UniProtKB/TrEMBL annotation:
<dbReference type="InterPro" id="IPR003280">
    <property type="entry name" value="2pore_dom_K_chnl"/>
</dbReference>
<keyword id="KW-1133">Transmembrane helix</keyword>
<feature type="transmembrane region" description="Helical">
    <location>
        <begin position="25"/>
        <end position="49"/>
    </location>
</feature>
<dbReference type="GO" id="GO:0030322">
    <property type="term" value="P:stabilization of membrane potential"/>
</dbReference>
<feature type="transmembrane region" description="Helical">
    <location>
        <begin position="112"/>
        <end position="129"/>
    </location>
</feature>
<keyword id="KW-0472">Membrane</keyword>
<protein>
    <submittedName>
        <fullName>Potassium channel subfamily K member 18</fullName>
    </submittedName>
</protein>
<dbReference type="GO" id="GO:0015271">
    <property type="term" value="F:outward rectifier potassium channel activity"/>
</dbReference>
<keyword id="KW-0406">Ion transport</keyword>
<dbReference type="GO" id="GO:0005886">
    <property type="term" value="C:plasma membrane"/>
</dbReference>
<dbReference type="GO" id="GO:0022841">
    <property type="term" value="F:potassium ion leak channel activity"/>
</dbReference>
<keyword id="KW-0813">Transport</keyword>
<keyword id="KW-0407">Ion channel</keyword>
<keyword id="KW-0812">Transmembrane</keyword>
Length: 143
C-alpha cells in the first residue's frame, strides 16, 4: 500500500521538476523564435518594398556614364603635350563628377532578394542596442 502511494508522489515531483525546467527554458526559446519571426517578416517586407520597385534611375545613370565617355573622347585641352592634357582632363573630371553624381544610382532593387533582406534584418537587430551597460542599470534591467 505504501508503494502505491509512493509512485504517484514520485511522479508528481518529477513532473514538477520537468515543468520548472521547461518554464526556465520557455523565455529563451520564445525570444529566439520571436527574433526568427521578426527577421523573416522584415525580410519579406523589405524584399517586397525595395526589391519590387522598378529602377527608374538606371537610364539616368547610363546617360551620366555616356556623358563622361563623350567628354573623355572629345576632350581638347589648350596645352600642346599629352601629359598636361591628361592632367587637365583629370582635374576637370574630379570637379565635375562629384557635382553630377547621385548616390541613389548605387542602389539596386535586384540586391533586395529575400536572403539579402534577411541578412540586412539580422544585421540590424544584432548591431542596434544599448551601447553602455549603465543604461541597463538605470532601467533596472538585469543582464
Amino acid at each position: 500500500m505504501s508503494m502505491a502511494v509512493g509512485k504517484p508522489r514520485v511522479f508528481v515531483e518529477k513532473s514538477k521538476k520537468c515543468v520548472s525546467k521547461l518554464w526556465k527554458l520557455f523565455p529563451h526559446v520564445f525570444l529566439i523564435l520571436s527574433l526568427i519571426g521578426y527577421a523573416v517578416f522584415g525580410a519579406v517586407l523589405f524584399s517586397y518594398i525595395e526589391g519590387s520597385s522598378a529602377s527608374t534611375t538606371e537610364r539616368e545613370y547610363h546617360a551620366f556614364l555616356g556623358e563622361l565617355v563623350r567628354e573623355i573622347q572629345n576632350y581638347t585641352g589648350n596645352s600642346s603635350s599629352n601629359f598636361t592634357q591628361e592632367q587637365d582632363l583629370v582635374k576637370h573630371l574630379e570637379n565635375e563628377i562629384p557635382k553630377r553624381f547621385k548616390s541613389i544610382w548605387l542602389q539596386r532593387p535586384d540586391n533586395w532578394t529575400f536572403f539579402g533582406s534577411l541578412f540586412f534584418c539580422c544585421t540590424v537587430f544584432t548591431t542596434v542596442g544599448p551601447r553602455k551597460r549603465g543604461w541597463l542599470r538605470r532601467a533596472n534591467v538585469s543582464y
